[in-house]
Amino acid sequence: MRLSFGSGLNVHTEALVDGTVTPQGIELVPTVAHPSELFWRQLRYGEFDVCEMSLSSLFIAHARGSDLVALPVFPSRRFFHTELDVHVDAGVTEPHLLAGKRIGVGEYQQTAALWLRAVLEHDFGVSQYDVEWYMERGVEHSHGGATGFTPPDGISFHRVPPEKSLASMLLDRELDAAFVRPNRRTAATNFIERSQRQRGGDWSKVAPAFGDGVAEGARFFAAHGYIPINHAYVVRADLLRRHPWVAHNLCAAFLEAKLAGQRRTFERIPLNLVFRWEYLERTRAAVGEDPFPYGLGANRPVLESMVRFSHEQGLIPEVFPVDDLFAESTRLWSAGGQGTR
């Protein structure tokens, strides 16, 4: 069986994209693109049989009756709140001082923004209602445009003008904080993100909102026991109704690809990183042997928290059982012993 496969570049799925790993009985035909572009294409046009997907947008689509069915594989996780940058003139020297500030996000419903609001609320006491939110993506090319997003009641919400970006507004002090990461900006790889195209400007006054991101990530993990999930993969429901075996075979292949990616990571550690092995050991000490667990059972606490946050933030009308998101044959799938040294 040939299935179209939309995926971003990720060490955990690279072996599926390059064909090193193949799901039993399935030939994947990959399209590699920036995740934000893939999500928009899938949510609006349903282009792929199997596709990487924002969990926050998946929750919203599910609540609206979408036919996308998730697989319990989560190759993308980060401490998203640590990626928020501030203009130093905004006077934000501690996270709680973000109350009353203007914060820019690529998209209000994106998973990174969901996590930022949740962490500010539950860990630092900054209510989502105490912030002015600015969204960069326009309606036509946004995930929210594809899912029917409207700003939640009571939120101070603004759209970034089309001639501006989060990056330009942060540099011009029209924003106090934003997801821009100046050291990670590259040439534009998709038509969704305007800030990636920002060049020039004085970035000397832009700094991380959470200071030492590694220390803050370790604090969060110690407090909550997980790294926040960003993406999963989805399959069209009509495909699974005809071929229910596809879900389990895909999960097994995703796990095999993840293990292959872990091995590749160790093989590729640059020799010019003087403390490369020490960094790996400190990472293990901070977040455990396998910080990217697969399977619904291992991820139920974080997924249930995410659904609750989505409801708290007005993105979905009610909390639903996380089991409802996933293919039935994968709900009891256990991917134990996933880590590798």
Brief overview, please?
This is ABC transporter substrate-binding protein. With 341 residues, this protein is an alpha/beta fold.
Tell me roughly what share of residues is in helical segments. 25-40%
Shape from CA axes? Answer: globular
Please identify which CATH superfamily of the largest domain we are dealing with. Periplasmic binding protein-like II
Mean of the pLDDT scores?
91
CATH class of the largest domain: Alpha Beta
Which structural class fits the helix and strand makeup? alpha/beta
User: What amount of the residues lies in strands?
Assistant: 15-25%
Low-confidence stretches: none
- Which sequence of SSEs, written as H and E, runs from N to C? EHEHEHEEEHEHEHEEHEHHHH
> What profile does the largest beta sheet have?
6 strands, mixed
Give the total of domains.
2
Architecture per CATH nomenclature, i.e. the level-2 architecture of the largest domain: 3-Layer(aba) Sandwich
